[in-house]
Design a protein that fits this description.
Helix content is 22%, strand content 30%. The protein is of the alpha+beta class. One of its GO terms (molecular function) is catalytic activity.
Length: 185
């Protein structure tokens, strides 16, 4: 698969910016049972302790923690489905991004400031403060221009690489579920 150039990526920006501000849709749920393994799920369980049940987030650990477990504010990685469709070019390549949830929703900092709660299925998640940025694996899979695009000033303001979140009310989520801002706890 040939990676897109910066100009090709920029040409898709307006489509991404037209993502729903609320009442978005869950387009894909991906579980990462082991490093570099991906399992697409029709339905997933979001749990307060382990995030997406079956995912290796907690046991994979984080350089940001001292206990050897995943960072509690990085339980879930969520990416805009329009952004990944542009970058990956084919839906079967979305899962290579390494995120668990791909949603058609405006993930910009303006629309979803830190602390925003989102309801999905019977679960509620909360956007956390840790930025989600492109990395070495992202470059390998989608190209240097894609990483520069998502990490650019506009890319960061729109959270094109995605956002981190934590589960605050466990529940079941399904592909096709609405994802919407909520004021309830």
């Amino acid at each position: 698969m040939k990676h897109l150039t910066t100009e090709q990526l920029k040409s898709g920006l307006s489509h991404i910016q037209n993502s729903p501000k609320d009442d978005g849709v869950v387009e894909l749920i991906v579980c990462r049972p082991e490093e570099n393994q991906r399992e697409v799920l029709a339905q997933g369980v979001l749990d307060l302790e382990v995030g997406l049940v079956g995912d290796n987030w907690k046991t994979r650990g984080s350089s940001r923690t001292t206990d050897g477990f995943g960072h509690p504010h990085m339980q879930l990685n969520i990416m805009n489905s329009r952004a990944i469709q542009l970058i990956a070019q084919e839906k079967n390549r979305w899962k290579l991004a390494g995120d668990q949830l791909f949603v058609d929703l405006d993930l910009s900092a303006e629309n979803l400031p830190i602390g925003t709660k989102l309801s999905i299925g019977t679960a509620i998640i909360q956007i956390t403060e840790i930025p989600h940025l492109g990395c070495k694996k992202f470059v390998e899979r989608f190209g240097l221009d894609a990483m520069k695009f998502v990490n650019s000033t506009i890319g960061k303001s729109l959270n094109l690489r995605g956002v981190n979140a934590k589960v605050i009310k466990q529940g079941i989520i399904t592909i096709g579920d609405k994802i919407r801002k909520t004021l309830s706890n």
